[in-house]
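Sample entry (166 residues):
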Amino acid sequence: MVGLAEQPQNAAANDLHGEFLRSLQLIDRVHRRLLDVVEDEMERAGNTEINGVQALLLFHIGAGSSTAGALKDSAMFAGANVSYNLKKLTELDLVTQTRSRVDRRQVQLRLSSKGTVIAERIRALFERQATALEPTASVRRDDLATMNRTAQRLEQFWTDHVRFRL
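Predicted structure, serialized as C-alpha cells:
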C-alpha cells in the first residue's frame, strides 16, 4: 500500500520535472525566434551589417543613455558578448561612447542618428507585433500578464539560486 501512495507523488514530481524541462526548451526557442524576427526586420530594411543581438542592443539603449554593465545585467543579453557587440556598433557609427565625468571607469552609451533609426525600426516592429498578437496568435493581454508573472518568479528563483547557492 505504501508504494501506491507514493506513485501519485512521483507522478506529480515527474510531471513537474517534464513541464520544467519543456519550459526551459521553450524559453530558449522563443528567445532565438525573437532574434530571428529582429534580424529578418533588419534584412527587410536592407541592413545586413548588424545581427539581431546588436539591433536589440540599439533598441535597449534607446533614446536615453546606458552603460555596458547595465546591458550585461539585462537578462536578454546574458551570454552575448556585449563588449564585442558594442565595439562593432561603435565602429559602424551606430553608438557613441563617452566616459562618465563622475566615474571615469564607466562609459555612457548613446545612439547616433543612424543607431536611432534602427532602434526606432525595432520599436515599430514590436508595436506592430503587439497589435497583431491577439487577432493573429490568440494571445491576449491576460495571457502575457500571466506569462510575465511566471517569468519574474523563475528569474527570482534562479537569481536566489546563484546568490545563495541553493
